[in-house]
Known about the structure:
- The chain has about 500 residues and is of the alpha/beta class.
- The chain is built from 16 helices and 17 strands.
- α14 links the parallel β15 and β16 (about 465).
- It is globular, with a radius of gyration of 26 Å.
Amino acid sequence: MSESGKSILRFDKVTFAYNEGKHVIIEDASFSVRENTKITIMGQNGAGKSTLFKLILDELKPRMGKINRDGGASVAISRQVIPRDQMTMTVLEYFATAFEEKDYQLEMKANKILTEVNLEWADLSKALHTYSGGQQARLLLAHALIQEPDILLLDEPTNNLDAAGIGDLITFLLSYEKTVIVISHDADFLNMFTDGVLYLNKDRKMVEQYRWDYYDVVDQIQAAIDKEKKQNARMEKKITDAKEKINFFSNKWGKMRKIAKKMKAEIEEAEDNTVEVRKDDKTIAPFSIDFENYVWPIVTIDSLSLMGKERKPQKVKFNLVVKKKQRYLLEGPNGIGKTTLLKRLVDDPSDTGATLAQEIRVGYYSQDFNALDMDMVVRDALHEVSNEVTDQEVYRAASRFLLTGELLKQPIYTLSEGQKWLLCYARFVIQKPHLLILDEPTNHINFRHLPVIAQGLNAYEWAIIMVSHDEHFLSQLDKIERIDLGRLVGR
């Protein structure tokens, strides 16, 4: 998408649809990506960003049109999460899945690539599930880079990374001399390196191409929307004026009727010139999470198990009593055990040195969606969290989070990552929990939703324990008390 350099990827009148052609994602899409550029894919949740990646990877085939990679350019992807069925693999076994044939130099390549992603200390014989979410994000990138692709696809690469990790990733991308195509909802991250944008217009089923940096493109899209609205306003006024003249002249004789006929022609022309105004990313509706009264301590903690300096478990004394209206942010470097701590609070609080009151309900957002049964139908997943909720209340909560009636009939695994995120928050509204445990609650989220989420959490009257590296989001939350876990173990 830059002025210089040859095209490395080209879509030529590509159409793709699911459900035997009934659910069209893109139609007659034509665009090209030049080599050595850094491109962002934008679009609403469910617009088809992940589908576009699958088409580039040749995992999906277009119904019409052609996709060309110059000289058979190779492609590799750094996915959002490591597949669950691979979590028991060792690091070396995971890297081996990047190649169709056995690579006898794999161990040497693995050590080299781990150094590039600042995981040089990682043990190749250690299982993937023993690494933290941020460390797994680096392993995902390493898995793609070890393939030495001509085109590198990054799907939400900042998810679970701490500030140091995001800084390392930006530094890497700025110096990386190959083509990169990124899906991300982190606007500040994207603006650091983007050369251009492919915008998936969900309503028109189009892929629109823009140049320049991310924020400039956002302004271009908004300007196009404003222009379309003004054009329609002019056409609507022209139609209204013509109709008024027709009503006046149609009751006259002779030349007056000819004028009325001419006015009808002007109306038809104005209607032809009326354009369908594109819909910018829809924002979720304001929401509230209701609660029932409870006056006792919700969580009592007297000790924590964390990873110390030598990356060995270390139990430390820590006294904390969490009550209504209290909110805590757990901070610390990737790998210290934040996600593990939150999971234990949900699954086995006593294992963490914590006690949860038996009467309370806990709403849990896990960064890998482990709290969701992927085979469950979306509607059933909403009913699951409350025995009292009606179908009407389920549909009302779902609509607030842009989950349509059609999506409610589908199994969860068919949803995009962003739609799974929306489902989790819809479940909170129905569940009415006393405690929210949130592990990276802005992962997969469109940045336009962030102020609405912050508003909903600020209005929430009960307790919150959370982990988040999204400082922009955290700046919008009221009365968050930070707990530095690193300080407790000298990290």
